[in-house]
Amino acid sequence: MNKNGNGMKKKRGFWLMLIVLLQLLFLGGIACFHYSALWVGKEITLRTVPVDPRDQLYGDYVQLNYEINTAPYSKWKGSGKEPNSGDAVYVLLTENGKDGDYEVAGVYDKKPSRSAGEVILKGRVQYTDNATMRIHYGLEQYYVEENSGKELGERAGNLLVHVKVAPWGSAVIERIEL
Amino acid sequence: MSRKWLQQEGPSWIHQNIITPEQFQRILACYPEQKRAIGLIPILGSILVGLGILSFVAANWQQIPDVIRLLIIGITMTGFYTAGEMFRRRNQENLGTGLIGLGLLTFGAGIVLIGQMFHLQAYGVTSFIVWGSVGVLLTYLIKSRYLFLLSLLIFSGLQWYNTTEFHHFSFAAFAIMAAGLGYYWLKRPDTLLAWCLAASITVQSILLVTVHEWPFSWFFIPVWLLYSVMDWSKERKSVYPFQAIPLVAAFVHNLVIVLFYTDRHDSTFLQDLAAQPFWFSLALVAIFALSLAGKHRHRRLSSSPDWLLALPFFYLPQGADAAYLLVLFAFSLYLLWRGYAEEWAVKINLGTLLFLASTMAAYGKLAWNFMDKSIFFILGGIILLSLSWFLNRRKKQFLIEHREDQEEKPHE
């Protein structure tokens, strides 16, 4: 029994090692995926707009409300009818001529083709109302050290946020212009 | 068995020449002192240490450079897993499993923390599905109930998060959970795990229906499907939780209609609830047939009245609440009767509970408008107390008789 038991233990140890290794690779993979955006991504500038309440500091993060979080139905370019809340969408952004920040050019249900100056962000429809779609990109929270984001929180409605977007869709906030 | 009890009784057995003193010592050696309690302490200890480290790192997290943060996560996780496996090899199974569970939790925390490093807020649950799947793999590898429950909790939690936060139901997560944990359960049946798994599947079915804003009664379909599949199992008692939870869910559904619907209110309550009749009936009849076929095959057609609860009275233009009230009574009485007939304590307990619920629903429904409120509560309380006294006495009698029976002729 002992020999058999040892064999089983060894086999179990091997599988456990493999599973742990896969977890490490997975965590490393997510980190690299996001880093890659910082390294090779195209830099774009996004403008935030005020919301109520004005102070958007919640403990250890600041809630950011971008202009591109809301898109009118006229921007819907997908096949079929308008998306429901919970649907994944691809948002084509294009540079605004005078300010240099990026605005919504179209919202698609499948990944559209893009020209040189444009970028595509993947988002999820949060909710819809009569005229607009509310889309979240996962870029809406900016983590700060506890008790240090006061100024940022109060000015959250009027910021320029520099985001790097990799060609494969990963997007990361690089810095915030105060 | 209690060692203390053995120590007390042993000398009298020696005295009666049932066993020799040597045999007594050998029996005693089979029950080492306080093993169970000692097994629990290391798990509690590992949880405390883990929480301490977690809160320390969390407090200083933002000052730590990215690379170091990644290293901390990786090393902590690997450390927990390695230590867990080491203790398991030294036959400290509980402590080892506890540590491996902490490894799994660290993996989940790592996913969240890495997202935070890049100021990313998850807007999907894909990475959490990976987390839960790792939990399932570990459950298979370690064969532990603790890891089973942990994985179940991860999958249920992520589905809850997904539906409340993103208005989205992940079929992939549901499939991995049901297949992975369900198959594990088949290989190693366990009552507690069955109750938890059945409850999670039922709750997730409700989430599925509500998140898509389908008429609520559609949740009958997955829930009764679960019930019917279990009719095909040769085993009966161990799979009963998978049938009891669907029955309770259907019971509660009907109970809510009884309590909150009356014909006099001209409301759209039932219309909002009612699924499209043609497809719903078709699906329900198909599942009913599947269930009956399974019951027939294993000769337990006597449990068919369970299906009373599935009767779709919500299509009735009038009197739906009365019809449901009758069903509630019929079902709980039937369950009580079967419980005594089959000498099955779970059914008796469940039947008692449901019978009390039906009684109170009926009482509330009929008496609320016609009585002074204080008399209403006093009378209701008295009815409830006397009923529970009566049912409990019956149950105790039954259990005593049953035990005597068993002592006389140990069956099965």
Automatic annotation (TrEMBL), chain A:
PROSITE patterns registered for this protein in UniProt: PROKAR_LIPOPROTEIN
Stored Pfam families: GDYXXLXY
InterPro entries xref list: GDYXXLXY
The protein, known as: GDYXXLXY domain-containing protein
Gene source species: Paenibacillus montanisoli
UniProtKB/TrEMBL annotation, chain B:
Keyword Membrane part of the UniProt annotation: yes
Keyword Membrane in record: yes
Pfam families linked: DUF2157
DUF2157 domain residues: 12-147
Domain of life assignment: Bacteria
Residues annotated as transmembrane: 37-61, 67-83, 95-114, 120-141, 146-162, 168-186, 193-220, 240-261, 273-293, 313-336, 348-368, 374-391
Name of the protein described by the UniProt record: DUF2157 domain-containing protein
Keywords per UniProt: Membrane, Transmembrane, Transmembrane helix
Organism whose genome encodes this protein: Paenibacillus montanisoli
